[in-house]
Amino acid sequence: MSQAALRSIIGAALLVAFVLLPFAGLSDYWTYTVTIGFYYALLAASWSLLVGYVGRISFAQAAMSGLGGYASALGVLEFGLPIGLGLVFAALIAGLVGYVLGWLTLRLHGAYLGLTTIAFGEILRISVTAEHWLTEGSLGLQVPPLIPGGSRLEYYYIFLAITVGCLAAMGLLLRSRIGLFFQSIREDEDGAASLGVAVTTWKCVAFAISSAFAGLAGGLYAHFVQLIAPSMMSLQEMGVILAMAVIGGFHNILYAALGGMLLQVLLEALREVEQWRLVVFGLVTILVLRFAPNGLFGMLSNIFVRRRNSDG
Amino acid sequence: MAEQLVVDRLTKTFGGIVALNGVELAFSAGELIGLIGPNGSGKTTLLNIVSGYYTADRGQITYENQPIAGTSPHKLARIGIGRSFQVTKVFRRLTVMENMLVSGLSDWSETRSQASERATAILEDLKLTRLRDERASNLSGGQLKLLEFARIMMLQPKLLLLDEPFGGVHPELKRFMYDCIRKWNAAGITIILISHDMGSIFELCRRVVTLSYGDIICDGTPEETRADKGVLEAYLGEHHASA
After folding, report:
1. Where would I find the ABC transporter domain in this sequence (chain B) (predicted)?
2. Of A18, A82, A89, A123, which cross-links A75 as Cys (Cβ 3.0–4.6 Å)?
């Protein structure tokens, strides 16, 4: 069985499992936790799209999510947009800012690129904190709910549907010619250009698309938790997203998304050990990078395919 | 024959080093030209400027009567200027077929099935069909060179710039590459070939341009180049050349 076939089967099985999960006696608290898990799954997948497929590192993903959260909230509060349009606005603003970040960092690689995206993310976070008159700064901004009076279960299914929809859209994009261009840029920019790929354009577009998904995730999160603060754009939050994608497997959007869900659930399950859980996740991230660079799910998939092939 | 590529007073310096010193050349459509010279003579710099990777300090380049200096590499690829690199730039984590499709699908007017069909035919020509679903990282050095050839042919180039295509290649494979180059040239593709392998240059090319320290020191037939004192001096040094 090929990796692609295996991924399709796993994807379908996971979808069924998540659809049925609330019927398996999931408490209100855990329904809430898994709903937040969908947010992180989307964020981790959006990061993996940029880093795993285009080879462009960014530490501004949390900031893009926060930007989307504030864009949607302010769009609704200040301009009276319906929440659906607010979410579209969030994705557009984050996508536009992502495009600018992509353009600013076109010629940068490695540490220089990473440091620039950190600086960019911090500029966004500090701007949101400083503009107290608009964003309420560190006090946090009250955000209207996605579904007035909606139950946890309704939110669960909306988040599940949007996450699945976004992952499917990312998958289609990556299977298209654009996905091939992205991967060719990751492999060798000069080589890609020599074959007619507009490297400059596609690098910017990749930043824009990845940021737009992060912005949409941030908008959803804002209208779910109904209170957002600049802390959602912090470097610590970025570290969590990075750990999720790396532990899941950042070379594959599905594995990265599963990493997001897995760590969110574990973060809640290990709440009793307080900050030590973050230390544990840091260690696990290092170990995964060292011994399973394809992530836990990538490693499991490789083992499964090898066994199937040797049996067959 | 019409002049397809004209390089006019091209100058390029890196710090204090003059890589190209007002180079003037004209290449006719359908020519097969060897570009030789000692290390650091400016051969690859010239190729990098013509293919858009470097910008010249001064001078003009005209391709099919259009000025192309400063045009980005991907646009030059799309108007028919294909190139290979000294070190192959094959996408190692992609399969052979995916490598081919990147090249084909960069032309938005081509559908995936059209590109696949063309890719299949080119892979067949280059004896790579059985490797079509193999990851490029599993290919040998010679197969990587062939894949690079194959990807360039997907661009349907009119001008081909080949930078050291025979480096580290088995003699048998080299003969096969000669055949490919001759066949493409016979089909009307202009080819500029850089190689340190003089045997290959003299066997394949009817015209040989020799560069030394950024200047053209000889432009003639293989026989003229072999007999040129300046060329011998550039390669062997003044003392050995006169001995």
Report:
1. 5-238
2. A89
